[in-house]
């Protein structure tokens, strides 16, 4: 035995004793006080929980995303939450806010620079190349939903972890793809009950843009003193970004700025006109917005954003946005030209818009007060009275659940009043009541929650009866 091993057992009791000593030293009152003052853990700044009262709505957005994506024949994909940081630097651009200020970057154990994904497009484009999707029938249409990370200053509608519903069409350059994507984003919001306003512009090809940028920089220099501090820096770093600055001074200074649309090549102009014509065909309203440029380097031609409530004055009020990115895949390693376009909608902002709408609709009514705390609704509620009834109920609910009928219940509660109150909160139309007498008779009572009218039926016929009542 090595001397090291010998000494080990001697140490253990000493440590235990120390702990015991400390415990003994603290009187119960002091220990209680110490526990009280212990700091509780907070969520990391800018990262939010979804609590049960929001869970139903959150899942409804996922369902709506899946349903619309499948109806447009998109396949579901998932990419890792982390990618090599360089992927984002290369695709989004070095001078962009996301890469320069907002990306969470760290070195992993092997010294590789890793980033938490700040957006989906670059990862999905990387995945398309990695998996040789070019050999699949084109275009490849994919959708995903999940968390993204940007180290921005948190405020309402702007978080450090947020979620997007994202769709991409890779391997096709046709204005009809852009129109279809826009209609899909618009219809997703409409399905959730939100009327979106689409702002649209074209920023042309990289070449169109270079000529325009020279002109724009000249103009911005002449207005330098009117611009905010951020925009003064942007003149040399990312002049296009000045165009969608929300500061009043900057907006005024931009009134006579050259418009990118006038610098588009004939091909880009035609392309843009076709996108608009398809939108007209689909009867999707849009607002031509010459200052809309989007923040990232990879965009070409069509760019768009979606708003509700006409809330375009605040920078964080867009619910989503997207556009064409014909050069990105080649930039990150595709062997041939692979045009593409896509959009992303922020789910936290959709949720804020839905809450606002719901609040406006409920103003004056007391619906919220009588709602189940987790927003759970069930058409049927099973209530029981007494231990024997509870046992029988457990088995009956299980068998109904297996046959596809979902019921609310609160088996731990003894009082019928408390159970029926819960049924009310769950908006149940009918309660099934099982007491001692019904256990003996092999029956249950079905109570209409609105009229209070009760019916006695055989336990064997519950399923049949409930199916007749089902909405
Ligand atoms: P972007 O990728 O910046 O074009 O953003 C697309 C959409 O994602 C925005 O319109 C927002 O709805 C949402 N989004 C972007 N950044 C954030 C953030 N920091 N917090 C919450 N939502 C965000």
Automatic annotation (TrEMBL):
Name recorded for this polypeptide: Histidine--tRNA ligase
Organism: Candidatus Magasanikbacteria bacterium CG10_big_fil_rev_8_21_14_0_10_47_10
Keyword tRNA processing attached: no
Gene3D superfamilies, per database record: Anticodon-binding domain, Bira Bifunctional Protein, Domain 2
Family: Belongs to the class-II aminoacyl-tRNA synthetase family.
Cell compartment(s), UniProt: Cytoplasm
SUPFAM superfamilies referenced in this protein's UniProt entry, alphabetically: Class II aaRS ABD-related, Class II aaRS and biotin synthetases
CDD domains: HisRS-like_core
Pfam family, one: HGTP_anticodon
Keyword Secreted included in the entry's annotation: no
Record's GO cellular component terms: cytoplasm
Keywords: Aminoacyl-tRNA synthetase, ATP-binding, Cytoplasm, Ligase, Nucleotide-binding, Protein biosynthesis
Highest taxon of source: Bacteria
Region (Disordered) residue spans: 1-41
Biased composition (Basic residues): 1-20
Catalytic reaction equation(s): tRNA(His) + L-histidine + ATP = L-histidyl-tRNA(His) + AMP + diphosphate + H(+)
EC main group: ligase
GO molecular function: ATP binding; histidine-tRNA ligase activity
GO process terms (BP): histidyl-tRNA aminoacylation
């Amino acid at each position: 035995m090595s001397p090291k091993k010998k000494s080990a057992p001697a140490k253990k009791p000493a440590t235990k004793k120390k702990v015991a000593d400390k415990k003994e030293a603290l009187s119960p009152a002091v220990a209680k006080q110490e526990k009280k003052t212990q700091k509780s853990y907070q969520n990391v700044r800018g990262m939010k929980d979804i609590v049960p009262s929001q869970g139903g709505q959150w899942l409804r957005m996922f369902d709506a995303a899946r349903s619309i994506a499948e109806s447009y024949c998109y396949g579901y994909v998932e990419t890792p939450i982390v990618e090599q940081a360089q992927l984002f630097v290369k695709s989004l651009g070095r001078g962009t806010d996301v890469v320069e200020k907002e990306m969470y970057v760290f070195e992993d154990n092997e010294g590789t620079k890793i980033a938490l994904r700040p957006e989906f497009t670059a990862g999905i484009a990387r995945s398309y190349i990695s998996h040789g999707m070019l050999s699949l029938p084109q275009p490849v249409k994919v959708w995903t939903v999940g968390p993204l990370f940007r180290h921005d200053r948190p405020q309402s509608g702007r978080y450090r972890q947020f979620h997007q519903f994202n769709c991409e069409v890779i391997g096709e350059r046709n204005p009809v793809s852009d129109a279809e994507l826009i209609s899909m984003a618009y219809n997703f919001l409409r399905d959730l009950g939100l009327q979106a306003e689409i702002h649209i512009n074209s920023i042309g090809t990289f070449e169109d843009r270079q000529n325009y940028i020279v002109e724009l920089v000249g103009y911005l220099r002449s207005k330098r003193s009117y611009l905010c501090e951020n925009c003064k820096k942007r003149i040399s770093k990312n002049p296009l970004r000045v165009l969608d600055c929300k500061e009043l001074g900057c907006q005024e200074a931009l009134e006579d700025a050259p418009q990118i649309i006038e610098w588009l090549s004939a091909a880009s102009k035609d392309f843009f006109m076709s996108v608009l014509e398809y939108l007209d065909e689909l009867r999707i309203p849009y607002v031509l917005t010459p200052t809309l440029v989007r923040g990232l380097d990879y965009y070409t031609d069509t760019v768009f954003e979606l708003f509700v409530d006409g809330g375009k004055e605040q920078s964080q009020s867009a619910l989503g946005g997207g556009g064409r990115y014909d050069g990105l895949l080649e930039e990150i390693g595709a062997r041939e030209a692979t045009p593409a376009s896509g959009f992303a909608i922020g789910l936290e902002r959709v949720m804020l818009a839905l809450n606002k709408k719901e609040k406006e609709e409920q103003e004056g009514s007391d619906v919220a007060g009588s709602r189940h705390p987790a927003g759970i609704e069930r058409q049927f509620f099973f209530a029981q009275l007494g231990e024997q009834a509870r046992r029988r109920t457990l088995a009956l609910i299980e068998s109904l659940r297996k046959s596809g009928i979902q019921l609310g219940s609160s088996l731990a509660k003894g009082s019928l009043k408390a159970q029926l109150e819960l049924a009310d909160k769950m908006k149940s139309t009918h309660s099934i009541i099982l007491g001692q007498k019904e256990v003996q008779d092999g029956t249950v009572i079905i109570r209409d929650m609105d009229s209070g009218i009760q019916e006695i039926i055989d336990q064997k016929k519950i399923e049949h009866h409930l199916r007749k009542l089902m909405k």
